Every structure is written in structure tokens, then in C-alpha cells.
Amino acid sequence: MNDLLFHAAPAAVSRLSQRLTALLDQLPSDERSKFLGLLVIDEHERPRMVFTGQYSSGKSTLIRALTNEAAEVVIDSAVATDQVQVFDWDGLVDLVDTPGVQAGLSDHDRLAEDALRSADLVLFAVTVDLFDDGSVEHLRHITEDLRKAPQLVVVITKSRTLHAAAGVREAAVRAALGTFADQVPWVECDAKTYLDGLHENDQLRASRRLEASGMAEVTDAINRIARERGELARFCVPLQQIALAAGEASAALADDPDEQAILTVLARQRRALTNRRGLLESALEREASEFRSACIHAVETLADAAESIEESENPDWSKLDAASDALNTKLSVANQRFTDGVHTVVSSQLADFTSEVREIEASPYAHQLRELEVQGVVEVQAIPADTGMVHDTGRKQRRRPTWGPKAAEHLKGFQKAWGAGDGLKQAAGSSGHQIVYKVGKLAGWNFEPWQAVRWANNIGKFAKAGAFVLPVALEAYAVVSDEREEVRVAKEKLRRRNALVGRVLARCDDIAWSTLTQVRMELDAEFDAAVREIDNVNASVRANQTLRSDLTRDLGAIQSEAIEMLDRLGETS
To answer: Taking residues 379-404, what's their average pLDDT?
Structure first.
């Protein structure tokens, strides 16, 4: 069975939120309101997966296979789809089947174009007969004109109907993609074999058919792109809210005040880590977006200069060098501003996090734990605490619980790693300090100036020659009177501009992705380790509790399932 995270993640959000709401309804009204307040699930726009390609390329069969036949798609050897069909996959994903392009029907091409513009992910289907001129033109239109290369997967369908020598199909895909050959993944599959496997009664034969179909590789490619582009991030926040609400509800059910104290401190630590990681991610994405905008503005300025020279009576192409130099300067400045911005974001966010940790250390529950025989667990800062939050249990002699030593070790370690330690000197070795230091030492990636000059020339001199890279009869432009010719020339100029912008933007996105990937690795290494430690201590406390009710067990199961799905969303290929 296919495991497409675009579908599995929102399904988990829906299922777990419903189960958790039903459990919370069993609590007293004041407690129920408190925890339901944590369970605010924002509605997100459903992701759109658009399937495109020439007629009879196997798009409809591919949709049925990806959904395990949940989508009722008409499959016919003729031109099966004559309109854009949107399949609501369990209310979670929109699957968009487009008419086959280059079928001699202009309406089909127009409908497919409209769907592609709004796509979150595009699957370009081509059969084992591979590419003809029309399909190459359509593929490059998607990558260059629509700028969908980062969201594109090329799928060679019907792979078991015709054998191909090693490397032949890869070479064909790379040739068709051209400039974007290294950016766009491609896979082979036979969706019909997969569907046959679903109906095979013999378990062994069914398993062999499913494996031989290659549909697992298609699913992996889609999941990989979704992770790299952050498309799955929209489901992380609701899952985190579910885990948080379930965890805090479980803490409230603990009869032992000391257990409730440690579980509450752990929950607050985990929430602080989760929220801060989300704030960091949002701030880093803003820096990347600003970098992208600056690069687009810079290359659009170059395109304007090239077109201005091109349209003058006596084009002086030597002026293009100055415009190219200006582009390189602007790109370098934008790159440096992006790098500096990333470092500033990490520094300021982690400084704020340290203050938040100090507040947790000064909480009434932390005071209560220190009063237990876990002496010196938390070195509380001089921050006023609302001691009214902690109720006197009336116990004159408090027994040190079995989870005490492990909790003490964790709380000391958490303070040293994320708080102020014993002073500024100690704080210099904290996890936050180490992250800031490593981010400041990250290697940078730069634009290659000679490429900018070459691309700039392509929009002018070579294009004017009429036979290189982006051919167009520009000499005829000044004298054409036919309205259709003017439109054609205008479209060609727009296409050249988009190609130029797309090439610079591809490098910009690569720089941003490479930089943020390294930063995220540093952040994830420390944050994930801290979360794991919290979860380990939490598990130790839970292991020493007698399960008080089915409600407690069910809440724990929901929290575990939410965390498991979060882990899957964060996996790397």
C-alpha cells in the first residue's frame, strides 16, 4: 500500500484530534475547556497534486494506483480525460487530472495550463516511448515558463511493457529537462501492475506485483520533494498541538503532586522547545523569502537593460557588461544580507529562549521539586513566582520517588544547556552558544559571475542572431503589422525573460536551501536531543505510575501517535 505523506499526515491530524476531543469531553468542564483551548486546529488549504502529460500517457491509471483505487478515474485507450477533474481524496488532498496536451485540442492545453499554475506538486507522465518534440516543449514550459522545477517529478509510466537498456531512459529524461536535469527527480513505474497486485488473491504474488510496479519509488519521490520544500510543515503545528494537549491532560490526571510537578515542568520544557523551533523556522523562511525577492528584482533589472538595448535603433551591446556587473554586485549583496540575517535570527531567537528557560526554572513546580529530596535540582533565578499555583499537600514527610535521580540529572543538564548555568562564563559552553558559533562558521555558497554574463548575452546578442539558445526573429519585430505576429514575438520575449529569471532563481533557491539545510541540521541536533531527553524522563516517570485509568492510557497513545507522525514528517531520504 502506498504511504503518501500528503495524505497520511492530515489523516492523522483529523483522526487524533477527534479521538482526543472525545477523551477530553470526559474531564470536568473547567479542565476540558483548558485543554480544548490547546487543541485549536487551523484549517489548511488542501495540497493540490496535478498530473500532466500527453494523451494516453497513463495519468489516470497513475492516480488510481497512488490512491489505492480510492479515486474513481475513467481509464480508456482513447483521449480519456477531456476536462480538468479534481478528485477529493478523503477530504485531505486534491488530485487534479488534466487533459492530455498536444492532442490537437487547444482547449485541452488551456485547461492543463490553468491547473498547473496552481499546483503544489506536478507529476509529468510520459510512457516508455519517451519524449517527442511536443512533450519536450510542454516539459520545458513547466520548468522554465511556469517555474515549477522544484515541485516537479517526471514519471515514466508503463515501464514493464517495454525493456530499455541501462541508462537509455535516464539520458532521455536529462535531455528533455535540459538546464534542470540535475534538479528534477524521475522515476519509472507500471501503475497497472500495481492495480493488478491489489486484486491478486495469492499473497506472495500480490507482494511481488506491488514491488515490481515501482509505485513505492513514486511515493518516495513525492514525499522527498514535499519534505525539501516544506510542504509538509503545514501539518506539524496541529500534530504538535495534539501531542501537547494530550501530554498536559495526562499530567493533570496524576494523583501525586510531585508527579504532576515533574510532568508539568517537562511539558513546559517540551512546549518551549517546540514553539521556539517553530519560531526559528518561520524567521529563517522569511530570510529566504527576502533573499529570493532580492534576486528576482536584480535579474529583472538586468532583463530590462538587455531588452532596452535590444529595442534601440543602434544596439550597443557593450552596455550589457555594466548591467551584468550590476547584477553580480546585487546578487552578492543579497547573498551576504541573507547569510548575516540567518545568523542574526539564530542569535536573537536563542537569546529569547534562554530567558524563557529561566522563567520555567523559577516556576512554582520547580520550587516544589527542589523541596523534594532532589536537592539542587534547579538553581532558581531571582524571578517572582506565583506560589499560589502550588497547593500544600499536607504531607509532613515526602518520600523521594524512584524517578527522582533521573529527573534531577535532566533538570540540571537542561539548565546548563539552555539556561544561564552558573554565570556568563558557564553559558559560553551552552547548547545555544554552540549553535550560534557553528552557524557563524558555516560555509557559504555564491553565485558564479560568468554565468550571469552568459545568460545576459543569451537574451540579447545570441537571441538576435536568430539561431542560438532562444531563437526569435527580432529584426522583424519593428516592421510587423500582423497582430498575431506581434503577440507571438511578445510571448517569446516573455519566455526568454522567464528563462533568464528562472536560471538565476534556481541558483538562488539552491543557495538558500543549502544554507538553511546546514542551519537546520545544527538546530535539529540540539533541539531533538533535548526533546528526546525530556521524553525519556517523561517515560521514566510514567513507568513508575500505576495506570490510573483507561483515559490516561488513551491520552498517552494519542501523544505517542502524534509524535510518531511528527518523526515521519521530519525524516530525510
So the answer is: 46
Cα–Cα dist 1/198, whole Å: 9
Please report the pLDDT score of residue 209 as a whole number.
93
Residue 202 within a domain:
yes
Q: What residues are paired with 125 via a beta bridge?
A: 53, 155
| Contact call for residues 20 and 36 (beta carbons, < 8 A) | no
Q: What is the rounded CA–CA span in Å between residue 164 and residue 157?
A: 13
277 pLDDT higher than 80: yes
Please give the Cα distance from 519 to 340 (Å, whole number): 13
Please, are residues 143 and 180 in contact by the beta-carbon 8 Å criterion?
yes
Domain of 176, in residue numbers: 45-229
C-alpha cell at 103: 492532442
| C-alpha dihedral (527, 528, 530, 534), degrees to nearest 10 | 140
CATH number at residue 54: 3.40.50.300
Question: What is the tens place of the pLDDT at every residue in 390-402?
Answer: 334 444 445 466 6
From the CB of residue 318, how many other CB atoms can be counted at a distance below 10 Å? 8
Q: Are 514 and 445 in contact (CB under 8 A)?
A: yes
Q: Where do the H-state alpha helices sit in 312-363?
A: 319-361
The pLDDT confidence band at residue 195, using thresholds 50, 70 and 90, is very high
Residue 571 has a CB neighbour count (10 Å cut-off) of: 10
Query: ∠ at Cα 113 (485, 58), nearest 5°?
Result: 125
| Residue 54 forms part of a structural domain | yes
Map 263-299 to HEC letters: HHHHHHHHHHHHHHHHHHHHHHHHHHHHHHHHHHHHH
Chain-centroid distance, C-alpha 265: 31
Asked if residue 326 belongs to a domain, the reply is: no
Task: Give a yes or no: residue 126 inside a domain.
Answer: yes
CA distance 166 to 323: 45
Residue 467 cell numbers, joined: 539561431
SS3 318: coil
CB 94, CB 11: distance < 8 Å: no
Other C-beta atoms closer than 10 Å to the C-beta of 456 total 23
Q: What is the pLDDT of residues 92-144, one digit of tens each?
A: 788 888 876 654 445 555 667 777 877 888 999 999 999 999 889 889 988 88
Number of structural domains (the chain) is: 1
Residues sharing a CB contact under 8 Å with residue 329, sequence separation 6 or more, in sequence order: none
The residues, any chain, with a CB within 8 Å of residue 435's CB and separated by 6 or more, are 346, 350, 522, 523, 526
- The residues that bridge with 126 in the sheet, in sequence order, are 156
- Tell me the average pLDDT across 439-455: 64
